[in-house]
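Morning, I've got a small favour to ask if you have a moment. I owe you a coffee for this, so here goes:
>
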Amino acid sequence: MSFLPKSLAKRKDELEEEIQAHLQMAIQDRRDRGEPAELARSGAMRELGNVALVKDVTREMWGSVWLERLGQDLKYALRQLRRSPAFTITVIGTLALGLGATAAMFTVVDRVLLRPLPYANARELVGIKETGKKGPLGLGAPFLDLQQWRERSHNLRDLAFYEANANIGHLSFLEGNTGSIQVNATKISGNLFATLGVYPTMGRSFEVQPDSGAVQADDAHTILLSDAVWRTVFGNDPKILGKPVKVSGVSYEVVGVMPRGFTFPFGGASPVVWTPAVLADADKVRTKHGTNYQVIARLGPGVRVDAAEEELKVIQAEVAKAYTDPYDREQVTSVQVQRYGDSLVKGDVRKSLLALFGAAGVLWLIACVNVTSLLLARATARQREIAVRGALGASRWRIVQQLLIEGLVLSGAASLLGVGLATLTLRLFEHGLTTQFHIYTKMTPNLSVVGVLFALTVVSALVSSAWPAIAAAKTAIEPALRQSGSQSGAGRTQFRMRALLVVAEIAMSLTLLVGCGLLLRTIYALKHVPLGFRTDHVIVANMSIPAYKFAGRDMTAELYQPLLERVQHLPGVQSATLMTEVPLGKTFQMIFTFSTEGKSAVDVRRREMQSRFRAVGPDMQKVFGFRMLKGRFFNEGDTPSSQPVVVVNRAFVKEYFGDDQDPGRILGETLLNYNKERRAVVVGVLDDARQVSIAEQSQPEIEVCLPQITPDSSFYEGATGMAMDLAVRTERSSASIVPELRELLRNASPELAASNFTTMDQVVEDSYGSQHLAARLLEIFGGAALLLCVAGIYGLLAYLVTQRTKELGLRIALGAQRGEVMWLVLRQASWMLLTGSVVGLILAYLSSLLLRTFLYGIEPHDPWTMGAVTLLLLSGGLAAAYLPARRAASVDPIHALRAE
């Protein structure tokens, strides 16, 4: 195989002919002067000098010789690596671990934190929220407030608003060519897409009212489709514009299709469509019953976020005075302005990702250090070969270049394997990543990740190969040629360099292992937290309810009760219940806010009180086994015609009364109105149980009886029309009963067939949050680091024993005991382990502070964890040192001295 272009190959042949012609002329000249043929030839050769060096110097002047040398170095590197398959596999596997872990975590970081939003100049976009006594308001701001911001602000170039599904009381279903699917139907202002700097690829956007940014009344029943909806639901129909489509039973005319890859609000699992936000009478007042909008704005040229926030705070101080209710006024006294991209990622998510990415980076460093140590040993073993190359005229830079090419070949092969490991890791942790970071697209290394991996490949080659290459090239030629055997060139300096690398490995490995130990103890603590309910043999179906199909009808009587009766009659079902959300679920949350009147301290506290709100079936206690503190739970006697009743938990009693000394005193209290004629009373108090997260204490909760909810109930739409969970206790396996449950749901309503099935054990597992994901990843990172660390110790000591075989044989021949020889080797391991452990504990002490947000029931500087992990590392290190030490003690002095 030739790496040379034809013109360069021809010049090379011409150079060879010219040198041979010059040599023949010199030989002939000497023979003409009477010298014998042999003397003439040797004299001419001495006069010409090193022919290979002459060729190299000449070709240097051609300028394109680097291509030839690159080809030579590549072929030589491949040949050398093929001769040492064990060494090659070890180096590639070691680097692949570090590169694969780093590539996997960078893929997640890129997807969540770095990937630019699909909007023009996304850094200029900000989200604006009203804030006050209780912090930022997540429900948005009324139109009158954001209109004041629009009119009076000089730092905002444009301001748009939108109303997402969560604020309109029901889920949305789009009827398409393939049936009805759930969509994220977002109501937007007419200028929203212009504010984002994105426009439809087909058709047009909504017509805008210039004074308000809202949509013209003529466009009230138009709709824009996302590219994903257009392709999947309507089959890329090129004539889609102008056609009518139905969203939750309401007809809209398609006026445009947005570009591929565009989505807003950013993220989410459901396809997106956009309908107009048309102003109504409710937008003309500032009340809690009006419509609230999420606000996104674009900063003016050169305007900073803090400058825009300061200006809006001044404006908001005047806006707040327009609120007549003192309580409402306290909640909107200021504003918070944040870059839109930053608002999409919570602070704890950002910290979690960066901590895991840092752990992956540490593993990569450990891998590079390990490979550096291996390459140093290999360079020492090859000193005689390198010395011969130097004696034949190779420059030091030429030798360094060739060794760097070998490192680059190893690193390149490792990066290819690393891509496979990264893809496998992302697939194994796909569920956890989706649950914790809300990543709903397939995560595979993309071009940016490949670019980072390429950079890491080059850096890995330089980091691991540069030091051994330079050290090998600097070795004196004459002493290396005079020495023989595997001991040539081996000295204290090189051993100390490798020992320092192993110490660094130990320190970094201990840092990762301490983090892993802290998280494992956290998971252990979480798994031993009393949940307050049973999770075994419970299957859960998360149902998205097509409420529009039951408009004007009683969903409880016509949908839920018949469905529940059919489920309860399935073979193997012990009990079943419906509820708006199972404990620790993440599907749908309702918050109940008191609005009592009065100025006493008790009235004010209750007025500001918020409670979790759930509608549940009477059999919930049979399914989950909740414990009652006082009173009773719902039963079959609680019907739409009976006295409305509610059940609260102990945390509710404590918040309501200010203490929980006597939970039973709340029995008989009237807490909420079903309607003007029906007021619910408390009939029972549940013991506290975990609701949102295992790591969080119980929050106040009020539960209403699902069969008692009728269409005239004030909370009917929210409690029955958004989402519902079906929880089934059964001894049957999920594989056998889920198909039957899905068929029952399909018969009840076709949309319910797409329900997501899981188990309560999985729900609990998911509720561990980022701690569980981080613990599993650090188990892999820490285990790999420990393996590399032990391998590094073993490799260094095995090399030491090989280099000092003659010395050890001489010691034994002079009377040294076998145990003393073993201790000689183990002592080398001991000081490396102790030094690395001390440095590692210092690093672990500092880095454990970064894990504070992950931990539960344990302090970051837990001495038991640090002590146990250190003991594990020391034990592994000494075990790795035992084999070389035993080999050293078994050296036969006769054979060792005979080899001298």
